Amino acid sequence: MLTLLKLLKDGKFHSGQDLGVALGISRSAVWKQLQLLQAELNLPIHKVRGRGYQLAAPLSLLDVTQIQGGYWPVQVLDSVDSTNAEALRRVDDGCQAPFLLLAERQTAGRGRRGRKWVSPYGENLYYSLVLRIEGGMRQLEGLSLVVGLAVMRALREMGIPQAGLKWPNDVLVERRKLAGILLELVGDPADVCHVVVGVGINVNMQATEEVDQQWTSMRLESGHMVDRNALVTLLNARLHEYFDRHRRDGFAALQGEWEQSHLWQNRPVTLVAGANQIQGVVLGIDAQGALRLQVDGQERVYSGGELSLRLRDDS
Fold this sequence. Notes:
By secondary structure, the protein is of the alpha+beta class. It has 3 domains: 2-55, Orthogonal Bundle (Arc Repressor Mutant, subunit A), CATH 1.10.10.10; 64-259, 2-Layer Sandwich (BirA Bifunctional Protein, domain 2); 264-311, SH3 type barrels (Roll). The protein is 28% helix and 28% strand. The chain has helices at residues 2-8, 16-23, 27-41, 83-92, 143-157, 218-222, 228-249, 255-260; strands spanning 45-48, 52-55, 74-77, 99-103, 125-134, 164-166, 170-173, 176-187, 192-201, 268-273, 276-285, 291-295, 298-302, 307-311.
């Protein structure tokens, strides 16, 4: 079935006879595989008499041989519940870090605060990098914000110059979410631990009814299909660069660069912490990556994985 998909990925018409010859099966067997593709992967396929079969939209499929750089061993999974969950399982099984998992789709993708991450087949980037962290808490300070900087830089270089950051873990275009980051830690952060760096980027997705917030994709912003292998190659390079800077100089050296790209800098916001809502104005971040807010005329600092930041309606 995946071989058939690779034949159709260009979005052009292919006759049933040509597909059957390429696969070494009958035309009726081709039709059965096409029905499976539609049912299992939710990929619309057009059938036109005299022309053959065509995917409703071309696909940029992941291919390890086209991902350059060689910073970390890479494996592409066809389907997985969650690349982060699979990465954590492999750490538990003793797989040696670093390693990178990519997937064509996730059946149970997740974001921060337990949210679902919509993961259609072959359209977006589902990326989980496992790192072994030694040297204690200093190597973890502001790490999710460092990842955000690297993701943003890669997106800008790929033709999305308006991409910016939202504390703590999102990349936006204006108010529309383009990418999200989810870091998960295993082990003792004061000694030796593993961190799973999960990155989800809306790449070629053009429509969905499953996302419960404003969103966009690289294709919607740029007007053309994006090569996902080129995106992975560039993202790997930027992450490697920013990890080196963070390890060498600490997060404080990147603090100013992050603030310059924060779309909500100096904006009135609501910080949601469980059932509590805090009204303030964004002053920036501190040397550990915590959020600095002006609340009732005083500066306060907030950090934690369960915090959510929203622009106030009057902003």
